[in-house]
Amino acid sequence: MSDLLERLRGRGWRMTSQRRVVAEVLDGDHVHLTADEVHARAAGRLPEISRATVYNTLGEMVALGEIIEVSTDGRAKRYDPNAHHAHQHLVCTSCGTIRDVHPTGDPLSDLPAAERFGFTVSAFEVTYRGLCPDCSA
Ligand SMILES: [Zn+2]
Ligand SMILES: [Zn+2]
């Protein structure tokens, strides 16, 4: 569980009904929703919630570091509540489904010194691509 609501409450974030609905929509495992998807789901629970409110709320949660933005392959940016556990993404090239994965090994230390160009390297991102079981069936 991502326990996003608990985390936001713990940060002392003022929990309006609109903010709570956005947080509830994003809570869970392997959640990677576009802003439009968040808005559609939030509006299902709170019909008066505006797109602007959803966008602003997402921006605030990103600024707090409680959700992360995920961009893959030129598709719309997605929002991911799994912000505190380092993970990589497995993406279906057909339907766009995204799973959180935890590769073994350490790509950070595997980068040879000669390939670092003097950088102090602090992070990396890996995207695995392929067909999900539904799309390959
Ligand atoms: Zn698929
Ligand atoms: Zn993720």
TrEMBL record:
<feature type="binding site">
    <location>
        <position position="132"/>
    </location>
    <ligand>
        <name>Zn(2+)</name>
    </ligand>
</feature>
<dbReference type="InterPro" id="IPR002481">
    <property type="entry name" value="FUR"/>
</dbReference>
<dbReference type="GO" id="GO:0045892">
    <property type="term" value="P:negative regulation of DNA-templated transcription"/>
</dbReference>
<feature type="binding site">
    <location>
        <position position="95"/>
    </location>
    <ligand>
        <name>Zn(2+)</name>
    </ligand>
</feature>
<dbReference type="GO" id="GO:0003700">
    <property type="term" value="F:DNA-binding transcription factor activity"/>
</dbReference>
<feature type="binding site">
    <location>
        <position position="135"/>
    </location>
    <ligand>
        <name>Zn(2+)</name>
    </ligand>
</feature>
<keyword id="KW-0805">Transcription regulation</keyword>
<dbReference type="InterPro" id="IPR036390">
    <property type="entry name" value="WH_DNA-bd_sf"/>
</dbReference>
<dbReference type="InterPro" id="IPR043135">
    <property type="entry name" value="Fur_C"/>
</dbReference>
<dbReference type="Pfam" id="PF01475">
    <property type="entry name" value="FUR"/>
</dbReference>
<comment type="similarity">
    <text>Belongs to the Fur family.</text>
</comment>
<keyword id="KW-0862">Zinc</keyword>
<feature type="binding site">
    <location>
        <position position="92"/>
    </location>
    <ligand>
        <name>Zn(2+)</name>
    </ligand>
</feature>
<dbReference type="GO" id="GO:0000976">
    <property type="term" value="F:transcription cis-regulatory region binding"/>
</dbReference>
<keyword id="KW-0804">Transcription</keyword>
<dbReference type="InterPro" id="IPR036388">
    <property type="entry name" value="WH-like_DNA-bd_sf"/>
</dbReference>
<protein>
    <submittedName>
        <fullName>Fur family transcriptional regulator, ferric uptake regulator</fullName>
    </submittedName>
</protein>
<keyword id="KW-0238">DNA-binding</keyword>
<dbReference type="GO" id="GO:1900376">
    <property type="term" value="P:regulation of secondary metabolite biosynthetic process"/>
</dbReference>
<dbReference type="GO" id="GO:0008270">
    <property type="term" value="F:zinc ion binding"/>
</dbReference>
<keyword id="KW-0678">Repressor</keyword>
<keyword id="KW-0479">Metal-binding</keyword>
